[in-house]
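Standup notes
- DV: blocked on the single-chain target, sequence here:
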Amino acid sequence: MSKPSTTETIRDTRLSDALGERYLAYALSTIVSRSLPDVRDGLKPVHRRLLYAMRELKLNPDTGFKKCARVVGDVIGKYHPHGDVAVYDTLVRLAQEFAVRYPLVDGQGNFGNIDGDNAAAMRYTEARMTAVAQALLEGLESDAVDFRETYDGEEEEPVVLPSRFPNLLANGASGIAVGMATSIPPHNVGEICDGLLHLIKHPKVTFKKLAEMIPGPDFPTGGELVEAPSAVIEAYRTGRGGFRLRSRWKKENLGHGQYQVVVTEIPYQVQKSRLIEKVAELLAAKKLPQLNDIHDESAEEVRIVLEPKSRTVDAEILMQQLFRQTDFEVRVSLNMNVLDANNTPSVMDLRQVLTAFLDHRYEVLERTTRFRLKKIEARLEILEGFLIAYRNLDRIIRIIRDNDHPKPKLMKAFKLTDGQAEAILNMRLRQLRKLEETEIKAEHKALSEEQAGIKRLLKDKKKKWRAIAGEIADIKKQFGPDTELGRRRTTIGKPPSAVSVPLEAMIEREPITVICSEKGWIRAARGHLADVSELKYKEGDKGRFVLHTYTTGKLLVFATNGRFYTVGCDKLPSGRGHGEPLRMMFDLAEGHDVVDIRVHQPGRRLAVASDTGRGFVIEENEAVAQTRNGKQVLNLGADEEAAVCTAVVEGADSLAVLGENRRLLIFPLAELPVMTRGRGVILQRYRQGGLADIKTFVLAEGLTWRTGRGESRETDLDFWIGKRAQAGHVPPKGFPKANRFT
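- DV (later): unblocked, structure below
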């Protein structure tokens, strides 16, 4: 026979169509055969094949262990044509108590640890199934599910496991397919059983009621779930959402006011060693100013010791800081994207997932019951043949002795079936005892009663659901909260309240000197500089503001547009260069300039005024801005600008106002209103010019001003004391020509 020519095997098609067809085939293969679990047994093909291979090797919980290499070899040789590393990694994970809530593999040897260390090679480790895995496989021998040929057609494998154990929710699943993913955290099987039992009675149960019975995931590593109940209900209702999971910690007193924080449980799937490395990196970067050191004192149990900077550090604030910046708190996602009974991927809600499991168990019950019924019917047929034989024993023996082919004679004489006749011919002589006949009659009676019960069960839907409920109750008893394996490990906590973490807790507190030039270039030098005369500026620029503060402080910048801007001192550029333009740190419009810069002091009051002589007092806390756009405080009219901002000194009872026309007016500070925003009141009237400066002071101590020779003071002030909005008088002799108090 001649070979087809090359041209006969070529098919014309568009490249995009060819690529699309092949990519779609790859995508479907990835979704169905690799990444998404089946909603019925919660397993992916590799997990299912691994457990089935272990069953075929008779690695039951009550038998001995076998080398993992033997198990992996059977899996890849008979059922799963993939690499041995992938299969062994799957086996290892199913044995890790910190990775799987209800382990399916009982491992012996080094199977890794919570620090992220790998397991030993498969030739060194041994494994067998757990009771949970056995519950998943129970019923395979009773035609509970369909089987299909393996990849080479030499063996058979189950399409899905009977799954008496609700594995999907109990152990969770995760995977990334093409264009879709799944992420299902583990839950407590006792709570799942409660939900299933309630769902059998109330198929339309609300998600709020389900969330009362299944309040949230239950992770193998414990921790505290701090998600709001409403968010949990919504996640279960939609099949999508997330859960906030925190480490469990406690405060250990060391005496003399000293203490340390001990973390005993860390979030699910967080590597302990990497977590500690991250904290150490943050410590080195000085981003955890309240933490002095971290130690790992873990043995079999997790014990991470956090040493605070000092005894005055609040443990709650310290942990809040760690929750924000490290994996001591994580968000576990929920995306219940699974394959349904028809191998169709879809995102299911909690009720649909539970219902799918119940429907699967209903089908398994029917199949196993019918299988048992067939077995009983076949056995009853044989037993009835035996009873006929006992009643006609002599005649049957005579037929067998007198005929070369007694089988047809027996079938005709006693109306036996082929199977009955064959069973009689195969009877041993010892079975002819009277005792044996009695046992056969008893077995026949028992099987007849069981047969009648099964037939009633198959006809009654309510009885089927009662049987399923009984199975679920047995699972709860076997793996539920009364067992060490089934007790809840993750506690359900309250959503955290908004804990105010002060800025000092987030920034290393170091002394700095803030330097701002006349042209608005700002920088921060380390330490509190005593001598600022040597400071250098850009050519043509000079110093204007020099302030001593700390990296934890805030700067309040008052501009000519009447707005206050806030700048964190930790964000200021280094003092080694000339700094950066101050206006780049916030949104100050062109045409406006800085009036005053001061270090924010909570609780202090400020007096602000415009160049037309209008102003008021504001609580400094009200002047702090939260955005780059600043906070409008002093409202301005046309051609009016903010001119002055001064602190109200402690105990001040008077205000001195100085005009550009060199007129001084003093009046009681009480005449100046305290406002949060506005134009204020008239401080002083002018025929020409505007406001030059203002100052608050204690009248009994006198008014001071700074000159080139130091500070001058005037205590006899009656001549300048008047009422607000008057014009004032010429200042005392010797008052600075610069027309400023400072």
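- Follow-up: The chain has 17 helices and 34 strands.
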